[in-house]
Amino acid sequence: MTLPADHPLLDGRTTHSAVVRAFSADRPDTPPVWFMRQAGRSLPEYRAAREGVGMLESCLLPELASEITLQPVRRHRVDAGIFFSDIVVPLRLAGVDVDIAPGVGPVLGAPVRTAADVDRLAASGPLTAETLAPITRAVGLTVAQLGSTPLLGFAGAPFTLAAYLVEGRPSRDHLAARTLMHADPGAWRALTEWAADLTGSFLRAQVLAGASAVQLFDSWAGSLSRTDYVTHCAPSSARALSHVADLGVKVVHFGTGTEHLLTALRDVGADVVGVDYRTPLDEANRLLGGRTPLQGNIDPALLAAPWPVLEAHVRDVVRRGADAPGHVVNLGHGVPPTTDPDVLTRVVELVHTLGS
Amino acid sequence: MTLPADHPLLDGRTTHSAVVRAFSADRPDTPPVWFMRQAGRSLPEYRAAREGVGMLESCLLPELASEITLQPVRRHRVDAGIFFSDIVVPLRLAGVDVDIAPGVGPVLGAPVRTAADVDRLAASGPLTAETLAPITRAVGLTVAQLGSTPLLGFAGAPFTLAAYLVEGRPSRDHLAARTLMHADPGAWRALTEWAADLTGSFLRAQVLAGASAVQLFDSWAGSLSRTDYVTHCAPSSARALSHVADLGVKVVHFGTGTEHLLTALRDVGADVVGVDYRTPLDEANRLLGGRTPLQGNIDPALLAAPWPVLEAHVRDVVRRGADAPGHVVNLGHGVPPTTDPDVLTRVVELVHTLGS
């Protein structure tokens, strides 16, 4: 390991935390739990903190990003913090003209459609210690507050990043990106390799600054056939993860609608596979050969159902996860903005009463 | 069969057409081909015909709907027409306040969220011969022009219809609909049974007026776990299809992202399963036990790739479909509006040179 000596995994703060243990195929007494997008619009304190501050700006203000990361840990007593950021933050750090339009999502100044566009983009230099400083500082501030609760680093996978770059905005089918990978495989490879190094160094900075594990989000990977994923996307995801391979932190890999890709998501170098709400965890464990810790997969739609319905579902999720080598309870997708935060707190309390 | 004597399946016009044969698990000399959303924005003659006419209005003007249905058959020489309509047309016919907002999709005047909302909705009477008259007339006009080319009837499945009704507009995860099915299963059942009878009678009218087969679109079914689909959606889809069961026409059932649901989509009463671009047809055939004709599944993203790339892909699709009991070539999703129509014509020509 080349982590600094005061890293929480080295000085012992998070080494034996329930999340790190479960990611390491161990079984703590009760299952650990956190929620994707726990730092976000479901919390009134988040909406207050964000008031008047743009999404990308808030990711780049270290005190604010740290405060937002800590809010759900304080409120819900979840077992991990997830670094508050956005998939396109490293693009902004690299100087790409990108913003997050409220109600729309990431919008690029100029979509990347041709080999020449890719060349222009790839001229954006690598992320340096200086450009990464707001990230490093935010992570440092957060870890100092979290104590024995691990912070998880956050980054988007190259395909999802490239899908935004090629489409220029969120899209349903990512048609333009999927066309480019077949129409000009060379340009596609150059684009995704550039994105891999960008997102990989973004992830590495978070780990060096104190994150105890990381999660790679390939939000749109489910739009791909397995062959397209393995041929045109897995190599760049493996490349992104190679940036943290020497650091010895556990890697979670997640995408929605990826039942047909579960083993491929693992085989790019992930230790843990995040499972969306569509695939029962016992089935996911079977598909993965029973040797991979899982994360997931409470259906976010049930957060708005009456408590007895949600409780039965949470118990079922924990039961179905019991045969996997490790299980970190989470949602099967992000927290919907309309979620009652008290329900999330109650889910945490319930999970902490259950045997792992 | 209770079809009228002059129906194209009874008077022999379409009985031995390549599409009807392939749907019946037969192998014509060359594979038949048509394209989902072939009648639509990719065609300049469509854009001209629609100028100044709203989407739902155009579906309810018989001469216009018929002309639009015929356009791609004339231009591309595809082996079937698909009735030009929209999933929400039967809602409009039933008097529900729904419109299609350009660039957005179906928007409801008042979303259906509670049991009381469902009761109010269910008071909308069944579709009558009078309310269905524009559909009957459009189908009749079309079939009179199509000769030996079969017309396929079109309808949305109850879940997808209910997802629009509950959300009030298109959504990514259909959260509100998925919450309702768990939070109030009784209201959900009432809603989907009402939608089943609505869409079933819409489909039946098309068959009686001359459609030689039908396709049920469950566009959003892929957002469901298999258990949720089987428990909360399959019964109403079976009920919808029961409306045409006595007519003896073949039924195709299609949804995107449904690899985990293929057998369930068949088992509601479909003869043919439409496969999206994510699942290779040989794999789909294996999942379906080798006894179900398939439709699909050219990746729409490849329609914009250079011809040699697309040609190799089309040949691969036909090859992978060769082991299924029947195969109708189609896309694995609808024609993107930006598609060059000449490319579609060229795909038809290519498919017609290939052995089935």
Automatic annotation (TrEMBL), chains A, B:
The record marks 86 as: Transition state stabilizer. Residues 32-41, 152-168 form the Uroporphyrinogen decarboxylase (URO-D) domain. GO terms for molecular function: uroporphyrinogen decarboxylase activity. It is found in: Cytoplasm. The keyword Cytoplasm applies. GO terms for cellular component: cytosol. Keywords: Cytoplasm, Decarboxylase, Lyase, Porphyrin biosynthesis. Homodimer. Catalyzes the decarboxylation of four acetate groups of uroporphyrinogen-III to yield coproporphyrinogen-III. This is Uroporphyrinogen decarboxylase. The lineage of its organism: Bacteria, Bacillati, Actinomycetota, Actinomycetes, Micrococcales.
